[in-house]
Amino acid sequence: MQTTAVRYLVRPMDLGDISQVMEIEEESFLDMWPATAFKRDIQHNPLARYLVVVEQREGAEEAMAPPAEHEPRGAPMPPTRLGSWLGELKRLFGNEEESETSREPIVGFVGVWLTLDEAHIVTIAVRESHRGRGIGELLLIAAIALATLNDQDVVTLEVRASNQAAQALYEKYGFRKVGIRHRYYSDNREDAVIMTTDSIHSTPYQDLYQRLRQEHRERCGYYELNFH
Question: Could you tell me the pLDDT band of residue 58, with boundaries at 50, 70 and 90?
């Protein structure tokens, strides 16, 4: 039996995504952020950027996002009159936190704060049912791409001292351990390891990054980054 092909779209988080993001938060962290924190950052924090990974299946009734130029596909099927009418009613009368995108299956998210020359990854999480599929690595790829487009010089983050798997992934992408924040995590007072890249615009770093992106695509399948 042929399986349904899957591709992933990484796009900005909007208010309609918050309920799904909170589900992933609950699965991933003991010390959860409140939904109001995401809403406040999306609406009022000019430094904050949040991205979500949306799982899209070929043949789904919902229209898919436009494909990347280097991977041409057929044009999406136009919406039916009923679908257009329902969508218009939703736009006119729907709750501000509801949108058509909220119906898409969100499988992970990442938060990045952009400062003068440093992109700081503040959170990253993957839905429990989709772990082990390279989505966490895709979120890291997207965060670095976002930092590059916004002319940030380095990318930094904190990671639990006990999370060896995450540290290995970050080291793979050129992050170095540069310090410790003692008793950083409020749930169990665990230390955080501070990690940072060298300049992400340097030729050696871009060579590494582009090679790893290609390897990820070959291993985990097609994805698209759309930051607009």
Answer: low
